[in-house]
Amino acid sequence: MKHVFYLFIFFFYISAHTQTAVAADTHGLPEQDKSLIARIIAAYGGEKVIEGLTSIFAAGDINALMRQDHGSYELSFKRPRKLRVDTKYQRSFETRILNGNNGYRGTDQDPLAQVKDHRFLAMVYQYKHFDILHGFLKDPYSISRKGSEELNGSRAEVLHLLDQEGPPMVVYVDAKTFYIVKVIGYFSVGDGRSTALASEFSDFRKVGDTVFPFKVTSYAGGHKIAETVMKTYTINPAIPDTAFAP
């Protein structure tokens, strides 16, 4: 199972926020569920604030439990569909880039090279779960509500999201704050095997007119693999498109 974890070690991420105003596939939802999504949007500052977040830079420290290593973590996000993650451990480093319909990965041992199949879909998932509010507002998700569950001692509302590209996602929303506190993505990794990648979000703080989680705990296959403590978020920095070129 370890080699499955290594495929997805980069999921030490941030649930965050972005974009626009016309709800996705919510027309078939009961009014109560539409109200829940509206409360989520409001909790992150409302549609105008979310729409105005077109790029984000985040930096922090990562403790990779599986690798038994630690280091720095930097994430650059830019709409549409651009994401770069640079993780520099004490003994190695890794860069992952999503640029539209292309994904690339490089390490201290291998130069940046294009990835496909479930490795590419994993990068797409990272972008989508970072940009989850944009997904609620604009992307063609089919959304279904699956009741509530207890998560870390608090009640959370559970939503299932699915689009044509995938992967299927489950989103946990705190029933009091309406912050997104957990996201799970489900993946086939070939040969009939599958795995679940999850991130839990906590220590929410206001940055500008919205909020971000300053602690992210990541899991693969139900095993805790990393903890990331964010130091800073920068809203709408000027990130050149060359940052997302291989």
Largest sheet: 13 strands, antiparallel
Mean pLDDT: 87
Helical percentage: 10-25%
Share of β-strand residues: over 45%
Spatial order of strands in the largest sheet: 6-5-4-3-2-1-13-12-11-10-9-8-7
CATH topology: outer membrane lipoprotein receptor (LolB), chain A
Total number of helical segments?
5
Quaternary state of this entry equals single chain
Order of helices and strands: HHHEEEEEEHHEEEEEEE
Write the layout of secondary structure elements.
Blueprint: H1 2-7, H2 31-43, H3 47-51, E1 55-64, E2 69-78, E3 82-89, E4 93-99, E5 102-107, E6 113-115, H4 117-130, H5 132-137, E7 142-151, E8 154-162, E9 169-174, E10 180-190, E11 193-207, E12 210-220, E13 223-235
Give keywords.
outer membrane lipoprotein receptor (LolB), chain A, single chain, 5 helices, disordered N terminus, 246 residues, alpha+beta, 13-stranded antiparallel sheet
Please, could you describe this protein's structure?
It contains five helices and 13 strands. By secondary structure, the chain is an alpha+beta fold. The protein has a 13-stranded antiparallel beta sheet with strand order 6-5-4-3-2-1-13-12-11-10-9-8-7, with helices on one face. The model is unreliable at 1-25 (pLDDT under 50).
